[in-house]
Amino acid sequence: xxxxxxxxxxxxxxxxxxxxxxxxxxxxxxxxxxxxxxxxxxxxxxxxxxxxxxxxxxxxxxxxxxxxxxxxxxxxxxxxxxxxxxxxxxxxxxxxxxxxxxxxxxxxxxxxxxxxxxxxxxxxxxxxxxxxxxxxxxxxxxxxxxxxxxxxxxxxxxxxxxxxxxxxxxxxxxxxxxxxxxxxxxxxxxxxxxxxxxxxxxxxxxxxxxxxxxxxxxxxxxxxxxxxxxxxxxxxxxxxxxxxxxxxxxxxxxxxxxxxxxxxxxxxxxxxxxxxxxxxxxxxxxxxxxxxxxxxxxxxxxxxxxxxxxxxxxxxxxxxxxxxxxxxx
Length: 329
What we know:
47% of the residues lie in helices and 15% in strands. By secondary structure, it is an alpha/beta fold. The protein has 2 domains: 30-210, P-loop containing nucleotide triphosphate hydrolases (Rossmann fold); 225-325, Helicase, Ruva Protein, domain 3 (Orthogonal Bundle). The strands form 4 sheets. A 5-stranded parallel beta sheet has the order 2-5-8-1-9. It has a two-stranded antiparallel sheet with strand order 3-4. A two-stranded antiparallel ribbon has the order 6-7. A hairpin with a 2-residue loop joins strand 6 (138-141) and strand 7 (144-147). Helix 3 packs across helix 11 and helix 11 (263-279) packs across helix 12 (287-298). The relative contact order is 0.16.
């Protein structure tokens, strides 16, 4: 087994070299925000969608478009507004007067990386149209179903401070996002660098250093990364502690959790753990891989009670208590 892991390690180190190229190209344009960049790469390698939450001006949109540039992938930014229609997203049938037939005009969702800007500003019909493309990787227009290009990834942003005129995302839709990443303010030194960077006449541009084909190949390699049975048990314990906290000595959480994490949390913790190991050029998953991604995977899947809200306890606080209580292998 050790020999196999050694071979796998060597394979991963060779296959994951391009990750550093992407990071260095993105660093030319994005100052700091290492956490954000790593989460975008995690979603890309683990084939999952990401919900980015943060106040305006934190380079969320810029980070997503820069990532698309570095891998030479198609990129579409869709500004979600209250008057947006599903057809504006997926496309529609258009009547051709010359021959009396209909032809399909595909919408902006037919691209590799989709940025759904301020997703909670659009009504439920538009969100459900996006949901089909996220879950099924296909779009139905009229009676025809079209597959979406590969790789396909949705990165949605939402603004946590402005809730007027918004349509909160239903729990079922939020669960479709592999990661919910909260983007924070840059450090003082980083903001000084941002100020100087934007003071230049020509803004830096990220070069293409990888291809969509490389990403698809890397995704297949990520699934081969070794996950020990102890790590699998640890993942299950984290998820089950959110459903039955009293079995893990967390009786105080019973009154705070309305619904625990869904089975998607189990699947995503494993896949994201493998992707995190890949980003660190390793052929095996460690408990630290799981702990570092647990917050982004669990924070939007654990639904707290009214009592917890009244006590100003957030789902993040619950996740921290679970991570502190569940025994690490």
